[in-house]
Amino acid sequence: MKIRLERSSGVPLYQQIEQIIKEKISQGEWPPGTKIPSQRKLADIFEVNRSTVTAALDELTAQGLLEGKRGGGTIVTNRTWSGLTEWPVLDWTGYVRSGIHRPNSLTIQEINRQEFKKDIIRLGTGELAPELLPYQQMKKILQDAEAGKLMLGYEEPKGNRYTREVLAAHLKEKGIHVSPDSILIVSGALQALQLISIGLLKRKAAVLTEKPSYLYSLHIFQSMEMRLYGLPLDERGLDPAVISACKKQHGADLLYTIPSFHNPTGFQMAEDRRKELIQVSKRLSLPIIEDDAYGDLWLDMPPPSPLKALDQDGNVLYVGTLSKTVSPGLRIGWVAGPEPVIDRLADIKMQTDYGSSSLSQWAAAKWISSGLYAENLKLIRNELKKRRDTALRCLEAYFGGLARWEKPRGGFYIWVTFLKPLAISALFEKALKKNILINPGTLYDKEAKQSIRLSYSYASRSDLENGIRIVAQLARELM
Amino acid sequence: MKIRLERSSGVPLYQQIEQIIKEKISQGEWPPGTKIPSQRKLADIFEVNRSTVTAALDELTAQGLLEGKRGGGTIVTNRTWSGLTEWPVLDWTGYVRSGIHRPNSLTIQEINRQEFKKDIIRLGTGELAPELLPYQQMKKILQDAEAGKLMLGYEEPKGNRYTREVLAAHLKEKGIHVSPDSILIVSGALQALQLISIGLLKRKAAVLTEKPSYLYSLHIFQSMEMRLYGLPLDERGLDPAVISACKKQHGADLLYTIPSFHNPTGFQMAEDRRKELIQVSKRLSLPIIEDDAYGDLWLDMPPPSPLKALDQDGNVLYVGTLSKTVSPGLRIGWVAGPEPVIDRLADIKMQTDYGSSSLSQWAAAKWISSGLYAENLKLIRNELKKRRDTALRCLEAYFGGLARWEKPRGGFYIWVTFLKPLAISALFEKALKKNILINPGTLYDKEAKQSIRLSYSYASRSDLENGIRIVAQLARELM
Ligand SMILES: Cc1ncc(COP(=O)(O)O)c(C=O)c1O
Ligand SMILES: Cc1ncc(COP(=O)(O)O)c(C=O)c1O
């Protein structure tokens, strides 16, 4: 975020900054108690020297609007614009701290902020690079809009019917036979998890998942006081044999799995394990959420059938999304499963956001039904394959003897585990100083202190090369 | 929902139905324990006589796939497709029942379903009629899409920056001075409430609101175990004088209000009350959520300034939406307030759906910045005014002596209160039988057993006339 000052206005820059901050305070944007950004950050925001910022803050402190805080930082004082308040000032910080949903981990908050910095090399980002997003084709879809086919009203609870028909046909190609009534359109796969969390589980419910897992980087279930238990994972996916013991020890209300091109490891569950998992699910009456966000992004050969295609009993809730194959900005995903469950989730969805963007639903239906989905996927696979191979080559070149990893057969990620202990948060910080973002393994498993999730979907091939080289060097220094 | 049978295929219709239901059972769409739709509903879905449905169900029952339930209804039995199961079958109904978020009230679920029925007269619906939605202009906006300006990636946590700049300028016209950093883009105003509920409040927190209120028709706060307290309301809005006593008795962590063209009453909070409310908020350190969904839809003269424009202390979180003025399908709304609060809500939003559709955000920015917002608003006001006046005229004609109401100065609603007691749920049912949907007052206040919310935004003027006439007649019969 940048704020432009009027450099030719004659008003000194520090006074302009003073004025802007005063306005933020007087308008209640920065209410009393707000910790304002650090001097370094402010200098960055206003694009001035730090001394200019200091001059502005000194002025505001002298006026009694700001004060230094014990232990560092500057906060907005309790005097309001018009003088001392008669009443204690509303303490928003109490509200912000006591809300039910947990905040993102500080590392993820930092990543969310830094990702929008210019020239940063994003080695951790789980999304397609901008040059892989289909701007031209999407533009064409929009240009073909017919007023009569657009949808601008509130949609049916499960989402636009035509879009669900298109999705049902799309799922059939994967061996998943569901009618449009058993599909709910959601705003991305993440929202499916959120709805399941508040719609299908009790507080304290036990959720099993791979360890590491994407699920650990979220607080969706934990914020509702649910307990997460991690199951061991290898290159053939999670081992269904351990589930029964885990259930005996902790209970098991739900199992969440990413069988194809798992986030963060890139692993693919083998066919025999898939079959066994379905059997275990039957035997233990254990519902499964199958997150198939990456299933279409195979790079060498298609993965085995989704669990849902093997499920004759309605034990599996299948989750998909357009985020990883088309565009995350569309915010279109889906859940398919038993109709009474889908009805329940649809009702909760109506209660939290009245359905997903109908513009996005319309574009998604056009995208898939026109054949663009299949066509574009080929291009993306091709490009991802090149990037994966570059990443693997660079790992060989720079990480040899330093770490181990498996070649992923699809998706976005390589799970890199250092052979010797090192301070992973220090590696994150040092890389950030060099303008490189990496995702520490600890985001996905508290104990994965020697791993990072490397993504080859975002950085260009030259950035991959440079980034991997520099991270290897930093890691060596830290060991 | 309709399922088309192959009428010329030679296979008897009842066998086709049998086959379709078998598939639903064998694919797990209708898992064991599922209560299947009633015979009447199935006849409707398949567009056949009830006897055809009965023949199909008898066949399935003979095969052991369905069974009649004591007390009525037919459920899927515990035998799976391949014979008797060895293990107890997964009980989804337990999951559906025990989830944390409360289901919508049965009346609202019924309304949500019936709204999509053909030829129904919707006298309760809180949305613009299809003919008032700007299909032609939206098509033009889409056709003008430039690939370079489209946004297809994940957006910043608070939403696309340019869109927030456009919104900041838009809010300035209402006297609300906030920078883009203090604005969060959400998927409709409803989502703002959902985020506030899980982001800013503790369990058991006390939320004050008008009685009746839109808020009572939702379970957003109650599902998180928060307590709602209703404040008395008259044509000049809620009376701030009672807040202090309410706080003493129950506590008060937040006040939710719809000052302009309140849902469901249409009332407008007077200027002196707005000023007083801001003072009370300061004195009691009471945060306010101002829901301004209808503020721009004044029909005679603009309402007084929003509360947020009077708030110098950052006590007000201002919520707006494009749903009532442009298109609900866009799912674009916003929250403006103190930056640390907006940061917190943005973090929760990232954790629940990674941001709103960027296609919708892009269209919203274009819509507002191009001047189409202002231009289209004039047309809509004009049309709404005609419909309001029609509704008022019909009320005079048919409801005279039967009920009382106030003329709304904007928005969508007239709150009609019968002068004598009547069974409001019977009125709802009877109207539905005549293909008319009305919203019983009890949705918005359990005790409002003599009121209905009449909406003039959806039904055409002739439907308004017919609908109001018939409802009056039914009400007289019930008294
Ligand atoms: C396994 C998995 N599931 C779900 C998501 C969420 O994707 P979206 O909500 O954009 O569909 C992601 C994104 O990182 C993911 O990796
Ligand atoms: C007062 C009020 N607020 C919020 C909403 C939700 O609107 P949306 O989520 O579509 O913006 C409504 C819709 O009925 C409303 O009446």
TrEMBL record, chains A, B:
* Superkingdom as given in the UniProt entry: Bacteria
Q: Name one Pfam family in it.
A: Aminotran_1_2
What keywords tag this UniProt record? Answer: Aminotransferase, DNA-binding, Pyridoxal phosphate, Transcription, Transcription regulation, Transferase
A molecular-function term among this protein's GO annotations: DNA-binding transcription factor activity
**Which cofactor is recorded for it?**
pyridoxal 5'-phosphate
- Where's the HTH gntR-type domain? 11-79
- Protein family per UniProt: In the C-terminal section; belongs to the class-I pyridoxal-phosphate-dependent aminotransferase family.
How is this protein named in the record? GntR family transcriptional regulator
Q: Which organism is it from?
A: Bacillus swezeyi
Q: What is the lineage of its organism?
A: Bacteria, Bacillati, Bacillota, Bacilli, Bacillales
